[in-house]
Each structure stands twice: as C-alpha cells, then as structure tokens.
UniProtKB/TrEMBL annotation:
Superkingdom classification of source: Bacteria
Pathway the protein contributes to: Cell wall biogenesis; peptidoglycan biosynthesis
Similarity-based family: Belongs to the CobB/CobQ family. GatD subfamily.
Name by which UniProt lists this protein: Lipid II isoglutaminyl synthase (glutamine-hydrolyzing) subunit GatD
Name of the gene this protein is made from: gatD
Top-level taxonomy: Bacteria, Bacillati, Actinomycetota, Actinomycetes, Micrococcales
Role description: The lipid II isoglutaminyl synthase complex catalyzes the formation of alpha-D-isoglutamine in the cell wall lipid II stem peptide. The GatD subunit catalyzes the hydrolysis of glutamine to glutamate and ammonia. The resulting ammonia molecule is channeled to the active site of MurT.
C-alpha cells in the first residue's frame, strides 16, 4: 500500500526472511540488578521493517537496559501465537507485497491488539503498519481494504509520492524523521494527530497533520528510524510500558543523549530556518 518494489531491486525471497527476525542483542548491557522485565513485540519484522524501522526496536532494547530494565524482545510473524505479556508493540513500513503477506494474520490478532490498545499498552506504528492500524486503505483503482480501526484514519493510494526530511511540533517537543509514502491519510473527526508539520508533507501534504495518536498508540510516516533521532519519544513509550509491565512508575537512568539532541536541533534549524 505504500512502497512498491523498485524495478532495479531484487525482491526478498522466503528463504531469506528468517534472517530478518529481531534477534535479541546485548545493546546497552547494564551493570547492576534489573528493575524488572519489559516485553517488546515487533510485528512482522520480516515483511514490515524497511527504511531502517528495525532500528526502533534496537533503540528501545538498548534504552531499556540503560535505564536498568531487562528487555524481552519478541518477533511476531504470520502464524505465530501472539504473546500474552506484550507491554510495548512496534511495527514498521513495508512494500505492497509485505502488507499482503501480513493481512490475514493481522486480522486474526486484531482483537488482541485492540484490547491492548484500549488497556493503554503503548504502540508505535510506522508507515505501512500505521495505515493498517487505520480504518481503511482505498487503492488507486477504488478497492477498499479494511484496517483494524485502532486509529480513526483513512488512507487513499495515489500517484503522488511524498519524500523527504520532516520536522514536527508535538506534545513531546520537536520530532524529526524522513518520510517516503504515496498513501494520503486523512484523520477522522475528533482523531488527534501525532504532530503538526513544520517542514515536509505529513499525512497528505495538505492539512498540516502528521500521524495520529489515540491513548498510547502512535502512528506516523516517519522513518529515520524515528526513535534514535528522538530519544524523548522513545522514553515516553518505555515509561508507559514499564507502568503496564510492573505496575509502578518508570525510574529513568542517566543517559547521555547530547549527540542525538544536537543532531535533531540542527535538522530543525536547517529545515525551518529558525
């Protein structure tokens, strides 16, 4: 629905997909006892993680450790049972073929995802998964494909492609990233946007909105990946996840984010001339 396969790029074949699962690492390996275990579920890393979106999961994994928590990273692939203890759920962008491969499984686990969203479990859905968490995607030829309806957004495919760096104003502060999508998304009446566009196209290049947010579920077109470039957003997701996992307030550790902050501030200045 969002990224067709370029003509000069060989498509990924099924034999290669197993190598694309989210393999737990020792990123941010801490010293000292753990404050508790937090489960991060990455939806469809084989099919829906282009443009570096796997970096969001890596970022969450590392920052959980730096904050003193034990990350439990799980890949959810089509046909898998959905974990019972999901505290944070992430998903990324994909080609049309990838979205087709996950459609049936997403419909199967949809009720569980809706229940988790209503219960306040934090979720970050990027690009193609953002579209699938909406109400519907309308193809260029007019076919309507239903979504989960967790976010009240509708996306329509078109010939216009929206590509480039983005700066947003959000309740989390300035957020930067990179967009590359042809779907034009419109918010339903009363649906909160994730942010306001200061530079870039956003949802559709017209209304100034980018992404959508309902409770602790955030949908956005921003790749980059978004979380390493915006650690304040990553920590907001982690804080909500800790509250769900441990039923206690988030206790942040000391993390030196000055390089990420400086890079973000420079991009804001460069793109907005402010």
């Amino acid at each position: 629905m969002s990224q067709p396969t370029p003509a000069n790029v060989e498509p990924i074949v099924n034999d290669d997909l197993a190598a694309m699962d989210v393999v737990p690492t020792t990123l941010g390996d801490p010293t000292g006892p753990s404050k508790g275990r937090v489960t991060v579920v990455h939806l469809y890393p084989r099919e829906m993680s282009i443009y570096g979106d796997l970096g969001n999961t890596r970022c969450l994994e590392a920052r959980l450790r730096w904050h003193g928590y034990e990350p439990n990273v799980i890949s959810h692939n089509p046909g898998d049972d959905f974990p019972d203890d999901a505290h944070l759920v992430v998903g990324g962008g994909g080609q049309d073929s990838g979205q087709v491969r996950v459609e049936a499984d997403l419909e199967k686990i949809g009720p569980e995802l809706k229940e988790l969203a209503e219960d306040g479990v934090p979720m970050l859905m990027i690009c193609g998964m953002y579209q699938l968490f909406g109400k519907a995607f309308i193809t260029v030829d007019g076919k309507t494909l239903p979504g989960l309806g967790i976010l009240d957004v509708t996306t329509r495919g078109n010939e216009k492609r929206m590509i480039g760096p983005v700066v947003l104003s959000t309740e989390f502060g300035d957020v930067v990233g990179y967009e590359n999508h042809s779907g034009s998304t419109v918010l339903g009446e009363g649906q909160e946007a994730f942010g306001s566009v200061r530079s870039g196209f956003g949802n559709n290049g017209e209304d100034g909105h980018e992404g959508a947010r309902t409770n602790n579920v955030v949908g956005s077109y921003l790749h980059g990946p978004i979380l390493p470039a915006n650690p304040h957003l990553a920590d907001w997701l982690i804080a909500r996840a800790v509250e769900k996992a441990l039923a206690q307030p988030f206790e942040p550790g000391e993390i030196d984010d000055r390089f990420a902050d400086q890079a973000r501030e420079r991009q804001v200045r460069r793109l907005t001339k402010s």
